Amino acid sequence: MGDEHVVVIGGGIAGVTAALACADAGRNVTLLEARKVLGGRVSSVTHPRTGWELDNCQHACFRVYDRFMQLVGRTKGQDAIKLQARTVLPFASPATGEFANLASGRLSPPNHLIGSMLSFPFLSFKDKLAMRKAVKRLANMKHADIWALDGMPFRTWLTEQGQTDQAINRFWSFFVLAALNIDLDEASAAQACMLFNKGLFGDADAFDVGAFTSHLSESFHPAYLEALDQAGVQVRLNTSAKGIEHENGAPTSVRLAKESIACTDVIFTTPHHITARLLKASNLEEKSALIERNINSMDYRPLIGIHSFYRGNRVPEDFTFAVMIDEPLIQIIFNRNAELDQPVEEGVQWLSIPVSSAVPFMGMEDDEILAELDRVLDALWPEQTNVKRFEHLIIKTPKATFAPTPGSAEGRPPADAISERIALGGCWTKTDWPSTMEGATRSGLQAAAHILKRTYSTDDAWPEWPSRPARREPGWRVWE
Ligand SMILES: Cc1cc2nc3c(=O)[nH]c(=O)nc-3n(C[C@H](O)[C@H](O)[C@H](O)COP(=O)(O)OP(=O)(O)OC[C@H]3O[C@@H](n4cnc5c(N)ncnc54)[C@H](O)[C@@H]3O)c2cc1C
Description:
Layout: E1 5-9, H1 13-24, E2 28-32, E3 44-46, E4 53-55, E5 61-62, H2 66-74, E6 81-83, E7 88-92, E8 99-103, H3 114-118, H4 125-139, H5 143-147, H6 154-160, H7 165-180, H8 189-200, E9 209-212, H9 216-230, E10 234-236, E11 243-247, E12 250-255, E13 260-262, E14 265-268, H10 272-281, H11 285-296, E15 300-311, E16 321-324, E17 332-335, E18 348-355, H12 366-380, E19 389-402, E20 422-424, H13 437-452, E21 477-478
Parallel strand pairs: 1-2, 1-14, 2-10, 6-21, 7-16, 14-20
Antiparallel strand pairs: 3-4, 5-9, 6-9, 7-8, 11-12, 12-13, 15-18, 15-19, 16-17, 17-18
The structure holds flavin-adenine dinucleotide.
Flavin-adenine dinucleotide binds near residues 32, 240, 271 and 400.
């Protein structure tokens, strides 16, 4: 084992996970990251006028992110996260000014949201009655039942369960949009059913929402760097891999711009279009061509992060977040101040609005987007219209996440798709999970397990790492 040297390409969540898991098992590991920080797509940007560090886009996590929470525990990153101790999902209607919560109650899943659902004003009695049938069906689905639906659009499945248009538009659609970053009409029924089966209607605490207590790079990079360093991983930032050399599928080195690193094993954790390019540059024969074809057929969906800043409270200080009913662009509003340990500046309120599956909005000018935001804020909080925005930043990410369209599960290669000593990781590989921090963590563990020759299913905890926290677990922060 002493001569074995694993090179992990990519320092996003998948790469950090894979590197730590391999190092914990005694391997010599080098991690290559093209950028100057670890965390990949979970990253910050510097605001050009104020110098503030801002998230590329609001990121949310959930208690059901079992492996991601294990990674947080392993990297001692608990301080960077606050988790609800009870699922509370606030909704608001700019058209009527009404607010209402869906929240977990005393009944066991999948009925834990029923109490709040009964008084939920945005759905009719008929909608709710029809939803009971679909919820029961979802909760009882087994893994094979779910993935047998991959070729079916989710709307078809919902229609078969008798869902009304209003229930689809006001309930099912938001969760698909936010968690899968895809319009419900384009989504694979399997991927959507998996989301509701494991998430909203899974364990009673599954959908407890988590928020990050500082800007994203600060929440991740320092904790990752320290954990990797202590595990003995050599981390090389600002270092891009150009390809690998191999003999019959066994890697001998990773090529950089001016040198090569000798190695025995390689784990790719780069996004799928980059992995395709690197595989091509590595001259990896027939099998790589097949994988390239598959991964090239996986489409991306964009996300837009709207950041808006006020001197004073444009929304009440204790407002956390709310899903907007019947709003295509301003889908959800987060009060980032309610999450952060420190505001970006004393007295400044930061509102953060992620726009999922943002295809129709990518061409909009900033002014048009901000006018929409103002309309929604004015409708919901008319008494605070005197608090004006003095700064903003709108960030458009065209290749944010892969699109789980009908049939897409077929195109996701498993960790062992290339060879015994080359593993594939990254949120787009075969994990059952959508393109999320949880999917990325799971893929990193699968890739490490392949290199370590361990039999492992990502539905099992990674045995050496701390387990995911229960509600109010000591050492973990609560989002009150
Ligand atoms: C705007 C936005 C909002 C999101 N919101 C959420 C959310 O709220 N909740 C959620 O769970 N998920 C969210 N996601 C998805 C989540 O961030 C990703 O699924 C996850 O972070 C992907 O991790 P990864 O490690 O697979 O890939 P990446 O994060 O893409 O990491 C790959 C790394 O490889 C590096 N790299 C590329 N080429 C090379 C090379 N040649 N050599 C060395 N390194 C290289 C890159 O710089 C990068 O750091 C969001 C994503 C985006 C973009």
